[in-house]
């Protein structure tokens, strides 16, 4: 009788899944779900159960593929309906996520908490909100740890109370519109003074008085109860108020003929005029004396080479043969093909010092004149 050969299975099943686990009456039950779908189901975004569950099967160990026994299901859930039990585990069970996914979730919630803190607080000196990067660094300094099982808003309020113990930070006030009968205004005014509220505006219409005030959010519930007691109405205009606009307003002259200049601009303007007059005088002299022109060009080349050394220090595109910086990588490659570099390379083989670009052009022109003179016999 032939016996079939049993070969080992190399495929691991149900490994790349999100496991939801629920322990009930001493037995652990698990279901296999698609990643990133459990939270969507619990938040109500995903409605299709087949898009969440990989199989309508209850396990005792998903990674090993061990199915739950029917008697255990009846003992724990009083039913053996797999789909119904999967729904209960999906709603009440604990989601087992991987390390990277958990880290990404905590990082996202940390950012959400920092954003809420930024929106609800301000710097008391400037009355402007702190940047979110600064809020995050302050949260790291107080060693804040995110609790994934609690809401971001509640944790943000706790972070604000903790930050106020160590850093200059205050809650942004709320802006409210309060409308009360005229005879109740004195009672409202006393309470607002006790709450350190700031009255922005006051308006009276008939027998009612309407005021707009900025109040600390901690007194919002007390204010709500007071308005019900005084038979008034209230309206929330802004949940958090920060300073707006620039702190310094630039003043401009009313002259339309000539735009106003600052001290630096006027000095630069005068210097440019002086430079233009100097350049024109120098041009006349160069036309009269060609040797002066060549010396000035050599001087300009040396000055530009010195400036290029400072500007290009970070790029380090320096030609050691020519002892000069030649700019970016493209200019650096083109420089090796130039006559300047080739001429200095010949001088280097003869152990002669390198020349600047203008000096090199003059030297090559002199060599051409010598070569022309050799063609004539005197």
Automatic annotation (TrEMBL):
SUPFAM superfamilies: beta-beta-alpha zinc fingers, FYSH domain, Hypothetical protein AF0491, middle domain. Coiled coil: none annotated. Pfam families: SBDS_C, SBDS_domain_II, SBDS_N. It is found in: Cytoplasm; Nucleus. InterPro entries: Matrin/U1-like-C_Znf_C2H2, Ribosome_mat_SBDS_CS, Ribosome_mat_SBDS_N_sf, Sdo1/SBDS, Sdo1/SBDS-like, SDO1/SBDS_C, SDO1/SBDS_central, Sdo1/SBDS_central_sf. Keywords: Cytoplasm, Nucleus, Ribosome biogenesis. Residues 252-277 are annotated as: Disordered. Belongs to the SDO1/SBDS family. This is U1-type domain-containing protein. It comes from Prunus persica.
């Amino acid at each position: 009788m032939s016996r079939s050969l049993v070969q080992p299975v190399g495929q691991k099943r149900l490994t790349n899944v999100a496991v939801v686990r629920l322990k009930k009456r001493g037995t652990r039950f698990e279901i296999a779900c698609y990643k990133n779908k459990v939270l969507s189901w619990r938040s109500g975004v995903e409605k299709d159960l087949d898009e969440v569950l990989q199989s309508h099967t209850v396990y005792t160990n998903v990674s090993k593929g061990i199915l739950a026994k029917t008697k255990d299901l009846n003992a724990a859930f009083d039913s053996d309906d797999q789909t119904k039990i999967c729904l209960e585990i999906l709603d009440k069970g604990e989601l087992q996520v991987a390390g990277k996914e958990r880290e990404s979730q905590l990082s996202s919630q940390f950012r959400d908490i920092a954003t809420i803190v930024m929106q609800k607080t301000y710097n008391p000196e400037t009355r402007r909100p702190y940047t979110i990067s600064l809020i995050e660094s302050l949260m790291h300094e107080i060693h804040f740890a995110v609790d994934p099982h609690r809401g971001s808003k509640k944790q943000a309020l706790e972070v604000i109370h903790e930050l106020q113990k160590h850093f200059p930070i205050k809650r942004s006030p709320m802006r409210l519109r309060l409308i009360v009968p005229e005879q109740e205004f004195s009672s409202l005014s006393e309470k607002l003074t006790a709450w350190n509220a700031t009255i922005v505006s006051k308006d009276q219409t008939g027998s009612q008085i309407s005021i707009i005030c900025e109040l600390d959010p901690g007194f919002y519930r007390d204010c709500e109860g007071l308005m019900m007691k005084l038979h008034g109405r209230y309206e929330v205009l802004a949940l958090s108020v920060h300073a707006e606009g620039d702190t310094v307003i630039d003043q401009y002259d009313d002259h339309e003929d000539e735009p106003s200049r600052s001290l630096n601009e006027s000095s630069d303007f005068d210097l440019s005029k002086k430079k233009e007059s100097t350049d024109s005088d120098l041009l006349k002299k160069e036309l009269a004396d060609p040797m002066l022109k060549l010396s000035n060009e050599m001087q300009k080349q040396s000055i530009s080479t010195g400036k290029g050394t400072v500007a290009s220090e970070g790029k380090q595109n320096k030609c050691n043969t020519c002892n000069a910086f030649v700019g970016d990588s493209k200019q650096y490659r083109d420089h090796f093909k130039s006559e300047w570099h080739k001429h200095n390379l010949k001088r280097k083989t003869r152990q002669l010092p390198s020349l600047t670009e203008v000096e090199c052009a003059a030297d090559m022109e002199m060599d051409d004149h010598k070569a022309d003179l050799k063609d004539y016999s005197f």
